[in-house]
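tool_call: predict_structure(chain=1)
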Amino acid sequence: MRKLYLFLFLTLISPISISIFHAQCTGATVESLTNPGPYTVATLSEADGVRNGPKYAGSTIYYPTNATPPYASIAIVPGFTAAPSSVQEWGPFYASHGIVAIIIGTNSLYDQPEARALALLDALETIKQENGRATSPLIGKLDVTKLAVSGWSMGGGGAQRAAVLDNTISAVVALCPYLTSPQLNHTVPVLIFSGQSDPTAPPSQHANVHYNTTPGTTNKLLFEVKNGNHSVANSPTGGGGAVGKLALSWLKIYLEKNDCYCSVLATAIVNSTTVSSKISQSYQCNNALGVVDSKTRFNLYPNPTKDFVQVNVREMASYQLSSSTGQIVLKGIVTSSKNQIDLSKLPAGVYYLQINGETIKVIKKQ
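tool_result:
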């Protein structure tokens, strides 16, 4: 009887919940992850009065001029012997989507990952001070509790180490990271990009090890670009644009705390399986319904599940269920009356249910 009450409650409450969610999440779609984004971008440097951090050498801040503050921020550092220009495209990309980005240089081109971690933390201090600098166009417009770090190669290793050194960081985006003997016991959500054919930081020696070393309780995603080299993630255009879409979705969720992007990220992953050679993931998102946008015509429960999921659809529709690596494991038809999908024979893990071009992440428990 208790289960019947729960079923009736979910049936009654779902349309109301969906309507509220739609109103809040209008515009949060994979199609909205454009390059560039909707906002115009301006820059600041030390010549404009920006703090000169002692742990790094030079910086450029990219910020949106017509978005709605307060803004989240991300600090980005290049790799071994590389200049800031090597990761420069990330600055205007993030800023055009409402996220302030500070790109820094290093005191030495030969700085190791630990030094780059300290440089990133110093760059975040600059962001905090910019929020209070009297003549800054960003005064009072920055949310200094929403700070992320990113980096390429040794800078990516440094970004992961920065999360260990400061657990108040909201998110990490590691770009083909290089870090030997990694010690990555932290709780900061981390997205790791790697290139399948990277000769400098082979995934088997770096990115894969980093992912496995990060605790299983930490939200994490590893995306290996098929045939990608060491610089495949230096730009949001990497992997045919998949790199930018995934990074932005990750930051929208874990940096900006916008759960509307939970199913956007899931859809972006599914859409990118043709350009990936490996995807590993272990993360939780608060949007259990997984609604993509206001046109969504279905939802499901329970999710997570041990056996069946119940799909609410308005009309007959075909579906396919894909594994986290993009392999189709189930296909079929659902209707308003025959709407159960049996997952009981599948191993535990993360799957993606696609119906009428829309996607929901499904978690299968033991």
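agent: Confidence is low (pLDDT under 50) at residues 1-23, 287-296. Proceeding to next step.
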